[in-house]
Amino acid sequence: MLKIGIIGAGRIGKVHAESISNYVKGAEVKAIADPFLNQETKEWANGMGIKHAYTDYKEILNDAEIDAVLICSSTDTHSPISIEAIQAGKHVFCEKPVDHDVEKIKEVMKVVQSSKCKYQVGFNRRFDHNFRSAKEAVEAGKIGTQHIIKITSRDPEAPPISYVKVSGGMFLDMTIHDFDMVRYLSGSEVEEVYAVGGVLVDPAIGEAGDIDTAIITMKLKNGAMAVIDNCRRASYGYDQRAEVFGSKGSVEIGNDASSTAILSTSDGVVAEKPLHFFLERYMQAYANEIREFVEAIVEDKDVPVNVVDGLEPVIIGLAAKKSIIESRPVKTAEIKSSFGL
What is the CATH number of domain 2-117? Predict the structure, then answer.
């Protein structure tokens, strides 16, 4: 039985603990750590069968029985804890992003490359049944040569301004998933980025130095083009759609809803709204990614999302930010060269 320690007992840490308990065979959560651990969280952990709850994550790293750690703490801690965990001989699953700072990601890459420990980055949408089906259709050649990739990603509501201020900006917080999805669906790398954005949802987001609405166009190495449209608020729910169009046809995925029932009457045609929150839409995807992480450890095979997959969307995000600031297309090679990549 693979023993896991979770660092960070916030929303995503609890999601992973519950998914391991309910859906992942061959693994159990032995301990969880959070500096803001309270009695409520301790009682929740006890109810989940987690034997140990700490305020210091080093208790997990020092536990010889723990084989792997899930890093679900605040973004600014991801890269340093990643390095500590690998050096402690633990396999690591790190929530995205590895870091907002490319130099810090490079430090993690060096440690990973010199270690036999597995290191997986948490881009959960790759494990969603809809996106995976689209990927399989593309890989099987069913749509022919890729021409256009379209991704729509709109949140049901904007995050608190306190979060916006520390998020790293919309491109590195929200759109980073879509940048990863462009790479995943296409199997190709992004070469050039052009972004336009504005503050259309909440003026306070602009006052905090960020945007809440954007359109990003990209040129890919395989010759295809991609378009992402983002907004921090969609009044009708969590809007997650994608299409890959090619020489033989297209594959398109839509939103999940609580039911597929469509009511048609003389008054009109009514269907369910999309699921409202990302936890509803992607709960099974969270379980799937941890299950594949565990399989990679047990079967000693490559993880499905590695540290390079953690780096590339950050590079694209920085190119998008630069494009907004300078009102021009930006090549990802320009960003990479500035970091010696």
Answer: 3.40.50.720
